[in-house]
Write a structure and sequence with these properties.
Oligomer: single chain
Radius of gyration: 15 Å
Order of helices and strands: EHEHEHEHEH
Shape: globular
Largest sheet: 5 strands, parallel
Number of strands: 5
Distance between the termini: 29 Å
Helix content: 25-40%
């Protein structure tokens, strides 16, 4: 089984990319599941994935790094209930040290179960170009670190 972490800023297209990738893989006979994540209790992304008829689980009330055990439990639950070949885990944009707090532990503990762990970050190309050109971004500087 592969676990693929997907990140990026709000509105960059993470959920859409995951849902479309799940459809493409499904058409090739590859089973998928998704774990959505948000700071709040209700996840809009979950409704989108549910509407696409993709098995999913949620990690709520904080990012993956703050809720690592919940993430690990949801991976095990999806594995038991749906036996996916690939699990996409879409983390909330405020996770700032995902490599140290989520990716490395998943690799260390999940590789023991022969599970491959990978990571992608999706970027809104228009916002990235604005940033590279040194122009003013359409959000506060306090969120620039994300």
């Amino acid at each position: 089984m592969k676990i693929h972490l997907v990140g990026g800023f709000l509105g960059s297209g993470k959920t859409t990319a995951i849902a479309n990738t799940c459809k493409i893989l499904s058409n090739k006979g590859i089973t998928t599941s998704v774990i959505t994540n948000d700071q709040g209790q209700y996840l809009v992304d979950s409704r989108f994935i549910q509407h696409a008829d993709i098995p999913y689980a949620e990690v709520t009330g904080g990012c993956f790094c703050c809720n690592y055990n919940q993430l690990d439990t949801q991976i095990s639950t999806l594995k038991s209930n749906h036996n996916p070949s690939v699990i996409f885990a879409e983390f909330v944009g405020s996770c700032t040290d995902l490599v140290a707090t989520v990716l490395k532990p998943l690799i260390e503990y999940r590789n023991a179960d022969n599970e491959q762990v990978t990571f992608s970050s999706i970027v809104d190309s228009q916002l990235f170009l604005i940033y590279l050109e040194g122009k003013e971004l359409p959000f506060s500087l306090e969120t620039k670190y994300i």
